[in-house]
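Long-time lurker, first post. I've been practising inverse folding by hand and with some scripts of my own, and I keep getting stuck on stretches where the structure tokens seem ambiguous. Below is the full token string for one chain I'm working on. Before anyone asks, I'm not after the true native sequence, just a reasonable design that respects the backbone. If someone could post their per-position residues I'd love to compare against what I wrote down in my notebook.
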């Protein structure tokens, strides 16, 4: 067993299928299957449950998965420390909310890249729930989220309190109590806030209209399709232009904590360590 075999095993576990892992790694599917079978034979145990819907880890496989991540991370860190003792290089995968990606994150990324140009930086947007799951599953090194996480496997670094507002079409005839909810997919902190606000107002919770693109929500609100709750700094240019208007929210719904999360047991490789320092300084 070597780290290359462990990397294949990790990729298969994260992808949920041999074919997806082969595509990600650029290998033939038969080669991936053979590597997994050889690993199971060497350990004399079954690592995956195989079904028509894909594969998932057995209890033993999950145990190996957690340890394999640590082994690969430590090995790569040791090699980097020896080969490049005074340089920060390697891979850094960061998850973020779309709202953060369009406001406060770009200056942080710019400053980080200027200092650590040898780091291969990847940014992936998603909801709070999706980002937290990807960090927990080692698919991201860290992520910016809204709200709180209760997973003890994740360390949560508070960043700020974000001001929120309820946005509607710029029309005096808009009855916000009857408007559909325009939201990101399930797991979005802004969606949860909007649902809690309607519940507190004793308003019915309609079937929401889901979007996966921030500007599409704002444009649809402007067109009169429905209402949404988003950060003040995101929608301020549209408010200034008169494209939409904002309603004041009660204090219990007017702010949202924004945090950066990473795995508590993560090997603190230089790219992640330096990113945490960078994000703390803003």
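-- Answer (accepted) --
I ran through it position by position. Result:
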């Amino acid at each position: 067993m070597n780290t290359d075999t462990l990397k294949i095993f990790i990729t298969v576990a994260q992808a949920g299928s041999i074919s997806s892992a082969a595509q990600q790694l650029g290998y033939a599917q038969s080669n991936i299957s053979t590597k997994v079978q050889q690993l199971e034979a060497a350990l004399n145990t079954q690592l995956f449950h195989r079904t028509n819907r894909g594969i998932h880890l057995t209890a033993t496989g999950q145990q190996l998965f957690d340890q394999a991540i640590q082994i690969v991370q430590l090995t790569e860190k040791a090699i980097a420390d020896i080969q490049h003792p005074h340089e920060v290089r390697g891979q850094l995968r960061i998850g973020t909310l779309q709202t953060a990606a369009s406001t406060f994150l770009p200056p942080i990324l710019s400053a980080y890249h200027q200092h650590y140009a040898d780091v291969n930086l990847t940014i992936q947007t998603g909801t709070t729930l999706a980002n937290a799951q990807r960090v927990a599953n080692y698919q991201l090194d860290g992520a910016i989220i809204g709200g709180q996480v209760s997973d003890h496997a994740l360390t949560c670094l508070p960043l700020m309190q974000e001001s929120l507002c309820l946005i509607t079409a710029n029309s005096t005839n808009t009855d916000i109590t009857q408007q559909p909810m325009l939201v990101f997919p399930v797991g979005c902190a802004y969606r949860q806030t909007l649902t809690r606000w309607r519940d507190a107002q004793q308003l019915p919770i309609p079937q929401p209209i889901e979007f996966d693109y921030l500007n599409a929500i704002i444009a649809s609100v402007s067109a009169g399709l429905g209402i949404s709750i988003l950060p003040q700094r995101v929608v301020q240019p549209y408010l200034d232009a008169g494209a939409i208007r904002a309603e004041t929210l009660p204090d219990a719904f007017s702010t949202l904590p924004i945090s950066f999360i990473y795995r508590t047991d993560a090997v603190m490789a230089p790219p992640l360590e330096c990113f945490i320092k960078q994000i703390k300084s803003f």
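A couple of notes from the structure itself: The chain has three domains: 3-83, 90-160+257-280, 162-254. Residues 59-83 form the longest helix (25 residues). Happy to go over any region you disagree with.
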